[in-house]
Amino acid sequence: MSEFTKVILLAGMNKLVLAIMAGLLVFSLWPGCAKAQKLHVLELNQRVLYPDDGLILGNGDLSVSVYQTGDRIIWRLGKGDVWDRRHDLSDDPRPLDIEEFAHGIKVEGWKADHHQFIEALHGTDNPERTKEVSKSVPSYRQRPYPCPKPVGELSVQLPLAARHTDMKISQRLVIEEGRLEITCSWPEGGQLTLDSFIVPSPNVLVVHWKVQDCPVWFSLYRWADPTLQEYAARLVADTRHRVFRAL
Asked: Is residue 103 domain-shared with residue 119, that is, in the same domain?
């Protein structure tokens, strides 16, 4: 086979590959094609009790974590540009300047391990300083901020007269559609169906609901930021972690 023939065949193969790719693209964009493809669905038949474990919906800017308490279903709202911007530097050591850093490298032979702890291979006349610049600063290690923060919650109050310990709950998160379906039912009768999603634009959470013999109502609220002491006390009570006892 001549080189010219090889080039012709290669060009033909490239056109064939492009034609196949174009066909697949058209097929994927054809109306109803998404339904023909296998969807990824996360299904739970129990409550999710903590917002950190909630089922997530979002569009890259607005998001919700959906979780439940004993008698409520809650959408915790988050926004990409809403942060707790407090930054307390009062306990932080003095930052390294370039002269001190260069002295550590060239004279004291600083070497950091995988924990970023600095060892002075040639010795140092200020071991405390070497130690304090080796670890993360208190402004990040011992503070709950700066960090993203929730911007409020939307909740639906479940029927007060119902026995919620006997409630059956089904949650279906359809990944490709970004849609969450929740169905609650009670042995004594009554059913609540919720369908929620966040549209790409504008930033709107959409919740459709259907009730059958079960009065419910919605609430939208936010809360004041806790003080550092209140926040730490709750973390200590929940986790018993020693880091938060110093706050």
From this structure: yes
